[in-house]
C-alpha cells in the first residue's frame, strides 16, 4: 500500500508497543551492546514511551486546533504574529532531532484564533517525521485553509542534529525556511512588515 506523501491528518499505528520495544532491542544489539544488562533492561520500554510522546503528532489533525475562533475582534485588521515558538521535530532521513523555533503570523479577515492554538498547530506538525520545508508549508497551509485570513507567514529556523552531530558536522549551522501566502507574499508592505517583525525576534 503506497502511503500518501502529503498526508497530514491522523494516522493510526498498526504496530504494538511490544513490537517497538523488540525493534529497540535489535538496535541495541546491532550497536554492539547487551540489551539484557541491568542498565539497558528497561531502555526499550523507555525509548518506545519517549517516541510515543515525540511522535504524538500522528494521533491528531492539527487543523482541529484552529476551528475555535473568535469573530468579535473589534475590527482588528492588523498582523498577528507569534514569535519564538519552540520546535522539536525529527528529520525523516535520520530520525535525529531538529531543534529550533517558528514564527507564525497572519492577517485576519474577520476571525482570529486563540494564540495558543498557533503553537499547538506547530507542535502537531512537528511531532512527526519531517523535513523542515514540509513542516513550514503544512503550518502555513493549515492556517490558510481553516482561518481563511488575508495572508499567512511562517518562518522556521532550526538546527539539524544529523548535520551538526554527525555527517558533515557543521556545528552551529541553522536552516531557515519560510512559507508566505496571500497578501503576506504578494503585497510588498505586508511582507516587509511581517519579515521585519520576525527579524526582530
Ligand atoms: N532539504 C532538507 N534536507 C534535510 C532535512 N533534514 C535533513 N536533510 C538532509 O537530507 C539529506 C539526506 O542525504 P543522504 O545523502 O541520503 O544521507 P547521508 O548519507 O546520511 O548524508 P549526510 O548527512 O551528508 O552524511 C542530507 O543532506 C541531510 O542534510 C530537511 O529538513 N530538509
Ligand atoms: Zn537528517
TrEMBL record:
Its EC number is 3.5.4.16. Zn(2+) binds at residues 91, 94, 162. It holds the Pfam family GTP_cyclohydroI. The keyword Methyltransferase does not apply. One of its GO terms (cellular component) is cytoplasm. GO terms for biological process: one-carbon metabolic process; tetrahydrobiopterin biosynthetic process; tetrahydrofolate biosynthetic process. Pathway: Cofactor biosynthesis; 7,8-dihydroneopterin triphosphate biosynthesis; 7,8-dihydroneopterin triphosphate from GTP: step 1/1. Keywords: GTP-binding, Hydrolase, Metal-binding, Nucleotide-binding, One-carbon metabolism, Plasmid, Zinc. One of its GO terms (molecular function) is GTP binding. SUPFAM superfamilies: Tetrahydrobiopterin biosynthesis enzymes-like. It catalyses: GTP + H2O = 7,8-dihydroneopterin 3'-triphosphate + formate + H(+). It is an enzyme of class 3 (hydrolase). Residues 21-198 form the GTP cyclohydrolase I domain. Toroid-shaped homodecamer, composed of two pentamers of five dimers. Belongs to the GTP cyclohydrolase I family. This is GTP cyclohydrolase 1.
